[in-house]
Structures are given as structure tokens and as C-alpha cells.
């Protein structure tokens, strides 16, 4: 459920009409609903209530805006981080490093040092050489680094190839068969303290089966590690998928019952009902690392139609957001619902494209849309996760602004970039002056 709804013919985010907001703040504009983020966090947190010691570590790569981080920190969340930059953001937003787990296959020495100095909860280690490096840095600092090894369980997540992470085709984690031996070596290192075990099999997973399969496969190993090293936590990663397709309809009464697909969709309840009974007997602290589930449907990208260009072959609706603002459709063939901010009569079939000089710069192809005209506004739904964070300055386009809505209030939580921002840090070579 989310808080983007049509009221009196206008799309609202909570109590704020998006068209008025777009006029005031300009486009392209990312808009996030505080209530939705809170609701999604709490739904997951409550679903895990039967695991008394659990921690929701928000995968902040999904959306790392400071206001979003502060909100989740205030709700008691921890963070799944993948770089020193992400840890810096957490600290700056008032989050607690002791609730941070640090994943990623390429941790640099200085990143490890910074994370140790900040006192993170655990390094989620992705290779044997990484343990050696963490050990070296920890010894130099006179510390013991808390670690968990990321198990690669070799389980298909049934999602897009680019966001599958738990098979031997992928660079992530250590093959499940080899994990015990790597722990044994790690246990002998003076700078290492074994704290837990982790896995993450992929993203946008829409059924519970892959999670169950991976957890079941890992359980014997986890029990062994518990006996050998008295580990305190098991992180089962993130990956809970969201509904991209009928996101808006889901806000209409009765939709849930009418849509047959909805019966198998992954909800926090269904996830917990299947996972908790497997994990509870361990008596370990359980971590989950959801990103998309918390923020995905809590954000939209608002854009303005610049031109409607009709050719004998097709119609192009040309908008002022581009693939530099939201790369998911071209990168993952992903579907984002596109709705007008104001009710219109009639429909048209069009490609919705951006201004960038690439044929791949589109949000939809041959999509039936509300009949929009130049100057109208559209919202690309479900853009709260992996939206702004994957944006670039390609074609020298300033990054969009971000707004957080709370009831009838809103705040610009990131200013739109200026042209001066585009060239910040650039300089002429001495010999060109
Ligand atoms: N934990 C780890 C170690 C991860 O690598 C990820 C995501 C997560 C948790 C969170 O996964 P989530 O709950 O959000 O599915 N850019 C892609 C998604 C990449 C996901 C990368 N890792 C997209 O736009 O679909």
C-alpha cells in the first residue's frame, strides 16, 4: 500500500497535490511519501515480531537521501551499506554505525579503516582475500574486526539476471561448500572476530520460495557455525519484491480481491510466515536488509510533457525526465506505471521518451496512456528505490530535486543541481590556459 492517490481528479502524495508541487518546485522532481516509508518499515518490523531479536537494516543503496535515512534511523532501523560513502551518509544523518552491516566485494583498505573507526556491527565478507585485508587493517588499528561471511547458496532467485546475486555465476559471497573452511581460517586471525553469517540472493523477488530454499539450504551450516564460533546473528539479506505494475490501482478498494496475481505476491506477512518458523529455533539475532520494499512504492518521479510528436509510425510523448534520472526501464526492462497528475479524457498509445541523445532513452514503448498534451505533468510510479541514486549527469543534465511529503507539508530534501554544480571540480589543464 502507498500514499499516492487520486483525489478530486488530482494525483496526491498524502495531502499534497502533485501538480501544484511540480509547478512550485519544477521538474523532473522526485517525491517521497514519509507515511509510506514509515508504514513499510513498520510492516516488516512487526511481521518479524516473533523473532524477538531482529534488526531491519535498510539497504540504503535503494535511496540514500539524508531525510530518508534520518526517518529510518528514528524508526529504529539499522543500515546495510556498501561503501565508506554510504557509512558517511548514515553518520551524517544521525544513524548508528553500530547498527550497520558493510557488504560489497571490493572494500578498499581506507573504507575498512573508516568502518572500523566508526564501530560498525559487522563486515559482510565476500571473499577469502578480503578477510586477510580486514585482518591486516584491524591489527594495525589494534582492533578485532567483527565479520560475517556472505554465503553464496547457489539458489536461483527467479528475478532479472542483472539483479540475481546468489548463484555461482555471480561475483557475490563465498560458495556454500567452501564457507566452513574460510571461517576456520578466519578464526585463527588475530584481527578478526566472527560475529555472524549472511546471505542475499537477489532483488525484486516476488515469491517466497527462493527465500525458503536458500534459508533451508544454509541452515545446517548456520547451526554448525553457531556450535563452533558462537555466532550471534544470521542476516538473510534483502530482495523482497514490490508490485510495479498496478501500483496505483492497489489503492482502490477491492482491487486486491479482483487481481488473481495478488494472491501469490510476497507480503511481509507471507514472508514472515514462511521464514520465521525456520529461523526462530536457532535463537540467533536475525537481520534482514530490505531496500526496495521500504522505499520503492514510496516515491514517484514527476515530469512535464515537452512535446507530443506524431509520425506516421508512432507517437512520442517527450518528457523532461530522461534515462539519466531513472535508468531502470532501459537497464532492467523494468515497468513503471505512468499516470497523469490530473484526470484527462481519452487515451493515446505512445512511446514515452526523454530528451537524451540515445535511442534507449525511454520509459515506455507503445504504452496506452492518458491523452496528454504539451505542458501536462506525468508521474512515473514506484520510483522511490534505485531511482535518484542511479541518476547521472549524462548530457550535462543537472540532477533532479527531491521532496519529502509528510501529510500536507513538504520539504525539499535535495536541491535541484545548478549548471555551476555540473562543472564543480573541473579545471583546465595548465597548458590550455
Ligand atoms: N543486501 C545486499 C547485500 C544487496 O546487495 C542488496 C541489493 C540489498 C540487500 C537490497 O535489495 P532489495 O531489498 O532492495 O531488493 N538497481 C537494481 C537493484 C540492485 C540491488 C542491489 N543489491 C534495480 O533497480 O532493480
Which key phrases capture this entry?
8-stranded parallel beta barrel; binds ligand LLP; 2 domains; 21 strands; 433 residues; Lyase, Ornithine Decarboxylase, Chain A, domain 1; alpha/beta; 13 helices; 9-stranded mixed sheet; TIM Barrel
Outline the fold blueprint:
Blueprint lengths: L3 E4 L2 E4 L2 E2 H8 L3 E5 H14 L6 E6 L6 H9 L3 E4 L2 H9 L7 E3 L6 H10 L3 E4 L2 H14 L3 E8 L21 E2 L3 H9 L4 E8 L9 H21 L3 E3 L19 H4 L9 H12 L5 E4 L3 H4 L3 E12 L4 E5 L8 H5 L5 E3 L6 E7 L8 E9 L6 E4 L20 E6 L2 E6 L4 H4 L11
Parallel strand pairs: 4-20, 5-6, 5-13, 6-7, 7-8, 8-9, 9-10, 9-11, 11-12, 12-13, 15-17
Antiparallel strand pairs: 1-2, 2-3, 4-14, 14-15, 14-19, 16-19, 17-18, 20-21
Helix pairs in contact: 5-6, 8-10
Bound molecules: ligand LLP.
Task: Provide a descriptive summary of the structure in words.
- The protein is an alpha/beta fold and 433 residues long.
- The chain has 2 domains: 34-292, Alpha-Beta Barrel (TIM Barrel); 297-411, Lyase, Ornithine Decarboxylase, Chain A, domain 1.
- The protein has 13 helices and 21 strands.
- The strands form 3 sheets. Strands 4, 14, 15, 16, 17, 18, 19, 20 and 21 form a 9-stranded mixed β-sheet that branches. The chain has an 8-stranded parallel barrel with strand order 5-6-7-8-9-11-12-13, surrounded by 5 helices.
- Helix 5 (109-118) packs across helix 6 (128-141).
- The longest helix is centred in the middle third of the chain and has 21 residues, at 209-229.
- The chain is globular.
- The chain starts with a strand and ends in an 11-residue tail after the last helix.
- Ligand LLP binds at residues 59, 61-62, 80, 103, 163, 200, 203-204, 237-240, 289-293, 328, 332, 385-386.
- Ligand LLP is lined by residues 59, 61-62, 80, 103, 163, 200, 203-204, 237-240, 289-293, 328, 332, 385-386.
Amino acid at each position: 500500500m502507498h500514499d499516492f492517490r487520486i483525489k478530486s481528479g488530482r494525483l496526491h502524495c498524502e495531502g499534497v497535490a502533485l501538480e501544484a508541487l511540480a509547478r512550485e518546485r519544477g521538474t523532473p522532481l522526485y517525491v517521497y511519501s514519509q507515511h509510506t516509508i514509515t508504514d513499510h518499515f513498520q510492516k516488516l518490523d512487526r511481521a518479524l515480531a516473533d523473532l524477538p531479536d531482529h534488526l531491519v537494516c535498510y539497504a540504503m543503496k535503494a535511496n540514500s537521501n539524508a531525510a530518508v535515512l534520518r526517518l529510518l534511523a528514528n524508526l529504529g532501523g539499522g543500515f546495510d551499506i556498501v561503501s565508506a560513502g554510504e557509512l558517511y551518509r548514515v553518520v551524517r544523518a544521525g544513524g548508528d554505525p553500530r547498527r550497520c552491516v558493510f557488504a560489497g566485494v571490493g572494500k578498499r583498505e581506507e573504507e575498512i579503516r573508516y568502518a572500523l573507526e566508526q564501530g560498525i556491527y559487522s563486515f559482510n565478507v565476500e571473499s577469502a582475500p578480503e578477510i586477510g585485508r580486514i585482518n591486516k587493517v584491524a591489527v594495525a588499528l589494534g582492533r578485532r574486526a567483527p565479520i560475517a561471511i556472505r554465503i553464496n547458496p547457489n539458489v536461483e532467485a527467479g528475478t532479472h539476471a542483472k539483479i540475481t546475486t546468489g548463484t555461482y555465476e555471480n561475483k557475490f559471497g563465498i560458495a556454500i561448500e567452501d564457507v566452513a573452511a574460510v571461517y576456520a581460517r578466519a578464526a585463527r586471525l588475530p584481527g578478526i572476530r566472527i560475529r555472524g553469517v549472511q546471505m542475499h540472493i537477489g532483488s525484486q523477488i516476488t515469491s517466497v520460495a527462493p527465500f525458503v530454499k536458500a534459508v533451508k539450504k544454509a541452515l545446517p551450516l548456520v547451526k554448525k557455525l553457531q556450535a563452533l564460533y558462537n555466532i550471534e546473528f544470521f542476516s538473510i539479506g534483502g530482495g523482497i519484491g514490490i508490485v510495479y505494475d498496478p501500483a496505483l490501482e492497489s489503492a482502490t478498494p477491492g482491487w486486491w480481491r479482483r487481481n488473481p496475481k495478488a494472491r501469490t505476491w510476497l507480503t511481509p506477512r507471507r514472508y514472515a510466515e514462511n521464514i520465521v518458523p525456520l529461523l526462530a529455533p536457532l535463537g540467533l539475532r536475525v537481520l534482514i536488509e530490505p531496500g526496495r520494499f521500504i522505499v520503492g512504492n514510496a516515491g514517484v518521479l514527476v515530469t512535464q510533457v515537452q512535446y507530443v510528436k506524431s509520425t506516421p509510425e508512432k507517437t512520442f510523448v517527450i518528457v523532461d525526465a530522461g534515462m539519466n534520472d531513472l535508468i531502470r526501464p532501459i537497464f532492467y526492462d523494468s515497468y513503471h506505471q505512468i499516470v497523469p497528475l490530473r484526470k484527462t479524457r481519452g487515451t493515446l498509445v505512445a512511446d514515452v521518451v526523454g530528451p537524451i541523445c540515445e535511442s534507449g532513452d525511454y520509459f515506455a514503448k507503445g504504452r496506452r496512456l492518458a491523452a496528454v498534451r504539451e505542458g501536462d505533468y506525468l508521474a512515473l510510479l514506484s520510483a522511490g528505490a534505485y531511482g535518484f541514486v542511479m541518476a547521472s549527469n549524462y548530457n550535462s543534465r543537472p540532477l533532479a530535486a527531491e521532496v519529502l511529503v509528510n501529510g500536507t507539508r513538504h520539504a525539499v530534501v535535495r536541491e535541484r543541481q545548478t549548471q555551476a554544480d555540473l562543472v564543480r571540480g573541473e579545471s583546465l589543464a595548465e597548458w590550455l590556459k
